[in-house]
């Protein structure tokens, strides 16, 4: 069936289309909205049809007791069970209810084996139905609600892109117009999941909470493997979200999700102030990649039993703990085609010394079976582990350090089959610990050998023992890991079985792009020098600071420490409401000690308060000119195991490390990193990724200043996992003023308003009246923006965003200072948040967003925008294709000679022609110019042509910084050069119509 994107042009048509798919392809019953009982979120008629069809005798028995009240009794009972504090609709569906000692099932799950035909028949009797335009209350009308056996389980708000709306409008609707108190949406008792869906993307939430509702993407990802980004693929003959009705909303998938995936997660946190334990609950619904990996792995294991290994490359921010818990849980009951159980034991191995409690809780949340999981904590020894392996516990969680001890103590295990799930398959998996894993569980004979021999013999046998399957989860697989656990693809290369890429995690807003503000020290130095030489770019206070930085040509420790401390103090410290932290990566343990000494000396000399550093390194260290022995604990003044806790407090801001905390250390407040050692490959990725955690509710920005590596080296290290394209080297301080001029041309803000707004932002305590006043200024600017036609509005917003991002970068990588510009930046940041009211941030509310600090704006949205990857460089056509007659060529040469003599540059014709090709490509996309070319003579066309040129030059800056900056700052030259090509562009535009 061919569907074209134009076939659905309104929300109503989308609704009809979805219901048609559910009815025709998935066997749903379509019901009238008048059948909805809003007080209990149920379709009674369907509920009782299901109960009568599947449990006729029980219903007869109960009818004798309750007579005419039976239906009301059952509905009230289900309601009471679902709404009680420890209850949930999920519980009721999974375990049924008990009335008068009679059990009533409310759904039937798919049996693990085919032994019982009655259960298989009952599974087929589950009734799926859907209604549109459902009134959940007098004020709330929901687009589509889906029911299982009469109970409401899923709600949809649909939006149609062709009608100019998107999933973001649906999210806004859920946040602002849907009450968490309405029975249909009650947390845990109402719908299990709510989807905001347009024709291209899907987002989901399991808990409505007004403005604070948190939506997660439920998209397949767009692209292949490591290059996959956010969103969904585009298909020729169907909608990008067609997987929803083709797969997710099929009866099998929904029943699988309810019975095997969705669970209630309980988190307990000790309140620092009161010392009381605070409990919070969440209903966990898998993200698309989590559902996808579990289903694909299970299908493969069903077919291949224990013959294969699985490498799962999931980035940070992928929800790995839950993915592992789901996998472990599912593998315990997995049967093959002959109905035989595949694994006797599931062993979860982590390289953390204390096995993750979170993991244990997640598994217990899925299945309340006593004895299902045994955690080998610090008190357990290797003998306990051996006993557990020989016993009946299904899931055993342990640390990799325990494995070497059991090689000898486990005997007779070749008759059992094992699934070994490794969390973070890093360093420890390729060494002797890994070899010990395969020896103790393997059914082959093994002779003693050193680590290298063991690994190579493992690889010769494809790293496999016949009765052991290994499932290795990692964000950054090393070559040895890929060799051991990867699969051959059709090109003969080994690769991961399943990928959720760093790129996708960044674009979906789960982690940050740490290469965005990555600056080599030489660039940092160069930028500051440029500012020093340009009277427009700074104030006297900045001048003094820059002068100091520029003297730092010798890179001895004291001078580096000065750069680090001053940069941290002026640029980083105020981030995250003043809680920002930094990490210094030193080259050796001696380095860590010496840098710490220099650090303390410098801050004492300067009298700086509020900056304190800790060190992290292993063992004891002596310095060449010093007999004293140093340890991490002796320098810090407390034991090693307290470091992460102490560093989290406000007492310490900087952590100086030597080969410690460079992997696996999770501290969301880390904003900056100063690198003093060579980083290569996986090590570089893992080290810099310490910065990538988001830190809600703040809009965190990361910063790397690297004294040793080049940006190109680091980019090459990231390339196998994700490649970013923003280069620090393309920034010049002057360009910020060009961008400011572009924004000013829209005339959206009154300078007096900017002044008044900043007075409010920087006042000690902001009153309600002041907030109103601030909102009034923003409203005024928004109205001015709305006077423009839609395309111009979009361009203005894009220009303002560009200005904000560029300015923030400049502030972070240099000692740029301009008070007026900073006030404008503050105003524009708030204005953008105000304009963006429809995005996943709920209604605009200034409470808590006002921070009188250099950078921090509290976030109004949970998802960072996904414009994190700069546009790749355009492929340029060759100069010959541009119609340069001899006459034009001569004129161009004369103009270029004049430019060169005035500016001291040496541009040649080729450079200028290439630049013109870029300009042409940008202008060819302008609808305004197309219209102008169509309706005007060439002479009249030139007026709008020169108007649009500046925008095109700014857009092309990243490709030709130098030449375009020169044209932007010199009107006369711009008209001379670009005048030569206006005819050519006019002709091209007319031809393109």
Automatic annotation (TrEMBL):
<keyword id="KW-0540">Nuclease</keyword>
<dbReference type="GO" id="GO:0009035">
    <property type="term" value="F:type I site-specific deoxyribonuclease activity"/>
</dbReference>
<dbReference type="Pfam" id="PF22679">
    <property type="entry name" value="T1R_D3-like"/>
</dbReference>
<feature type="domain" description="Helicase ATP-binding">
    <location>
        <begin position="282"/>
        <end position="500"/>
    </location>
</feature>
<keyword id="KW-0255">Endonuclease</keyword>
<dbReference type="GO" id="GO:0003677">
    <property type="term" value="F:DNA binding"/>
</dbReference>
<dbReference type="InterPro" id="IPR007409">
    <property type="entry name" value="Restrct_endonuc_type1_HsdR_N"/>
</dbReference>
<dbReference type="Pfam" id="PF18766">
    <property type="entry name" value="SWI2_SNF2"/>
</dbReference>
<dbReference type="InterPro" id="IPR055180">
    <property type="entry name" value="HsdR_RecA-like_helicase_dom_2"/>
</dbReference>
<dbReference type="GO" id="GO:0009307">
    <property type="term" value="P:DNA restriction-modification system"/>
</dbReference>
<dbReference type="GO" id="GO:0005524">
    <property type="term" value="F:ATP binding"/>
</dbReference>
<dbReference type="InterPro" id="IPR027417">
    <property type="entry name" value="P-loop_NTPase"/>
</dbReference>
<dbReference type="InterPro" id="IPR040980">
    <property type="entry name" value="SWI2_SNF2"/>
</dbReference>
<keyword id="KW-0378">Hydrolase</keyword>
<dbReference type="InterPro" id="IPR014001">
    <property type="entry name" value="Helicase_ATP-bd"/>
</dbReference>
<protein>
    <submittedName>
        <fullName>Type I restriction endonuclease subunit R</fullName>
    </submittedName>
</protein>
<dbReference type="Pfam" id="PF04313">
    <property type="entry name" value="HSDR_N"/>
</dbReference>
